[in-house]
């Protein structure tokens, strides 16, 4: 075998991560494929076995898998500063893009042209969600037991059981049943032999095996810094706006969400839809669909939809005498900070222990159980959104034919072509605008 690839200079890598943050459309599958092409095939900064090994590690963690993969690769190339640079730059451009789109939506969403654009986007989003159910289900539901767990999760979320309890129960059941009970489990890369080969290699920048000295100090240092970075905004909000203010509630809620977001953006949106829409009333179900459409059309991880949720919550209920715009921006940034800080921390803490984590069969089995349950949760979300978008007058009134036709066409395009979700969202927006004067077109 050839020697480990040569790491680029930090400045060269920094340029790449900055560019990637601006062009990483396509959701997690597209982003993972893009990094594989760039880093494994073209630049050869990391080899195939280690890339697959890193992907397997990131699939074990809650949070956005593609961003965590970038963070881990940055860490292998240049240690802590490389991981931070990759993880932050993967997200940073989308923060500003989505802030601008969220403001346009909040300030001008009622305009007929904007409403028409969003009508087309909503129909495409329903198709994207159903496609996600089919893709995840194909990987996760390989046995009767996994299918039963997905159905149980569907029934549980429909019955109002909180998403964290569903995740916990599925993980415990998966762990107890042992590895393989759920058919190999979700997005964990199946190439065991390649992973074992990667385990035997050295690390391009960090260390693939747990360090034997100073490990406790390193972990304690990362956790202490992360805790300080998490506590500082919270204490400022408590002191300036009060512990019961909306920004404080959002910050605590999305911190909790960050630790149960197994299954990616669609799973966490199901959780947020359950809590933020039904329980707290921060946003409406229609706004949640619109937010996913905006997140699909911007670079960065789809979990950025949570920033939109925070923005709209702050806009509709300004906190502490702030203007709607200032409250919205504050809530959006707090939401983003609470969402991504735990994700970065988990990767940087666990990166040196990747091999040990991958050698714990019950951990993989627990993840398989969770992903099976998440399939049922996402199906419930897709049907909920589909009912509100395609059947706004109820099932008895029948579908809005134009929206229904667009959703079916988008689903077919996703299943039989390589068209990315971002392009389909754009196409839906243009079709919505074009058809806005057509008789019977309504949402």
Task: Write up what this structure looks like.
- The protein is mostly helical.
- The chain has one domain.
- It contains 18 helices and no strands.
- Helix 11 packs across helix 16.
- The C terminus is likely disordered.
Report the span from N to C terminus: 59 Å
Oligomer: single chain
Shape: globular
Uncertain stretches of 5 or more adjacent residues: 183-211, 439-443
Helical segment count: 18
Q: Can you write the helix and strand succession as a string?
A: HHHHHHHHHHHHHHHHHH
Radius of gyration: 22 Å
The pLDDT mean sits at 82
Measured as a percent range, the helix fraction is over 70%
How many domains make up the 3D coordinates?
1
Instruction: Please state the structural category.
Output: mainly alpha
**What fraction of residues sit in β-strands?**
under 5%
Could you tell me the number of beta strands? Answer: 0
Q: What's the story with the biggest beta sheet?
A: none
